[in-house]
Amino acid sequence: MKVLVTGGTGFIGSSIVRALLLAGHDVRALVREGADTRNLAGLDIERVTGDITDPESLTAAIRGCTHVFHAAALYSFWVTQPGLIERVNVGGTRNVLQAALDAGVERVVYTSSVAALAVPSRDRPVDEATPVDPSAIIGAYKRSKYAAEQVALEYAAKGLPVVIVNPSFPVGPRDIKPTPTGQTILDFINHRLPAYVDTGMNVVDVEDVAQGHLLAAEKGKIGERYILGGRNMSMREFLGILEKITGIPAPRMRLPYAPLLALSYVNATWCRMTKSTPRMTPDTIRMSRHYMYYDPSKAINELGMPQTPPEVALKKAVDWFIAQREG
Predict the structure, then answer these.
(1) 145, 219, 298, 316: the active-site residue
(2) Does the predicted model carry a pTM greater than 0.85?
């Protein structure tokens, strides 16, 4: 099949591109002008210049494609330009899906996020059927992903064959920005993590996430969501695995919530004044109060999504970060 991938230069997107190539598909990647294309270096793909906020470029990019994997998004908890995150994540998704509808593609896989799902807890992992309270969603990024998912459901109702996937917290190679989870790994191996926050997450191999996308295109039900996740673990357990992989002692001090939240406001104010990017924001600290646990059973049982042990996935991530540092 001829496939268009948006967001192919990114962490998840570049893994999707590689999985498609390994499966023998003809891949076209939408690349923004001036984008960092290191993740696509050396790959036998077609690159087309365009932007998901530019409908005309999408019409040209999708032409001749049978499938679209829409993985492009602005993944940030710190956006100072008003309206940018909604324009990219919500408006951009609408543009991609409309272009796909107009082109009559056979299948679209939309990369949503667990951010669009209900707020979970340690005792009640969230699944695809857990009701969502939009008023409980924390932060502009998560609200944008929820809104974009509603757009995808709207287009499914119009007849577009779109399947939604919700990756949890992927780890692995090519996390060039990096993601917040990747930044934690990077800080750990650079001895810059003296303490930790009492939280939890669902850790998944990014290459399993990529396979989950291909499986969703093949087996997913139109208009349904699939959590592409792995194992639920506390931050303490996560750091303990990193200790075993690297030999670096994991931090033993746990940071209390209230003073950390206060410090995040101070940090955010300073970063606005200096036009820099904070390492933590009030939104990220508020989110850390929740154990972000999810149930990926639907993707495992219906799609056959693989489940690489997190120890293996984290080893791949550590090796990649170290290679980048030494290279």
Answers:
(1) 145
(2) yes
